[in-house]
Amino acid sequence: AQKVTQAQTEISVVEKEDVTLDCVYETRDTTYYLFWYKQPPSGELVFLIRRNSFDEQNEISGRYSWNFQKSTSSFNFTITASQVVDSAVYFCALLLYNQGGKLIFGQGTELSVKP
Amino acid sequence: DVKVTQSSRYLVKRTGEKVFLECVQDMDHENMFWYRQDPGLGLRLIYFSYDVKMKEKGDIPEGYSVSREKKERFSLILESASTNQTSMYLCASVGGSGVRYEQYFGPGTRLTVT
User: Fold this and answer.
1) Is B9 left (phi over 0), alpha (psi -120 to 50) or beta?
2) CA-based, 20 to 30 A from B66: which of A27, B23, B36, B111?
3) A46 min Cα distance to partner chain B (Å)
4) Tens-digit pLDDT profile for chain B (114 aa)?
5) A97 near A32, Cβ under 8 Å?
6) Minimal C-alpha gap between B55 and chain A (Å)
7) 8 Å CB contact of A44 and B45
8) CA diameter of chain B
């Protein structure tokens, strides 16, 4: 079965706190991609990162960092020194390369950063 | 820098109306997708298309149909809109291969059926 689980439905933090959003995926495919998207109140999905299944290097982009671990099938997302503008719904998604790019989404984590 | 566009950001329709949601991509991608998003359910795949005139059912195709007459355009059709189809609809386009695999979403259409 192909599945993405974001166990945290809602997270609330105070500005400048660090926060980690969890993502666990299931697939038997050997070639796949993992994505994180941000969805602000406007509704548009904003692409944050893409990782393919052969690249387990962690990545840092400014205050954002991602930890990809195939051994635990996890692709967690950390925001360092959170800001009010980080408030949004965040989606983790699994793209199935051998199925034409079908995306399987987690249910999303709503992050609220309070001043 | 426009990549995927959707015909409307907001749409209000009455129950029983036939509704067309249009999606256009300018990247010459073969694969296009329609998803709907509902609170607590994430995004779910309605239909997808691998090529012109080809279509495949996704996870929730009931009540919908699609049309792909040209490579750049993928239309979602609600034959007889119902209130349970009130939702956010997102179109996606996928292309490339290997490390060049790319995927883009349109801005979404918030459809309200009254």
Assistant:
1) alpha
2) A27
3) 8
4) 668 999 999 999 999 999 999 999 998 888 999 999 998 788 999 999 988 989 999 999 999 999 999 999 999 999 999 999 999 999 999 877 665 667 789 999 999 999
5) yes
6) 12
7) no
8) 45
